[in-house]
Amino acid sequence: MGKLDNKTAVVTGAASGMGKAIAILFAQEGANVIVADLKQNDIDVVVDEITKAGGKATGVICNVSCENDIKNMIDTAVSKYRTVDVLVNNAGVMDDFMPVDQVSNDLWDHVMGVNINGPFYACRLAVPIMLKQGSGSIINIASVGGLFGSRAGTAYSASKHAVVGLTKNIGFMYAQKGIRCNAIAPGGVNTNIGKGMVPNKFGYERCTIGGASMPRMGEVDEIARTALFLASNDSSFVNGTVLTADGGWTAY
Question: Residue 223, SS3?
Answer without folding.
Answer: helix
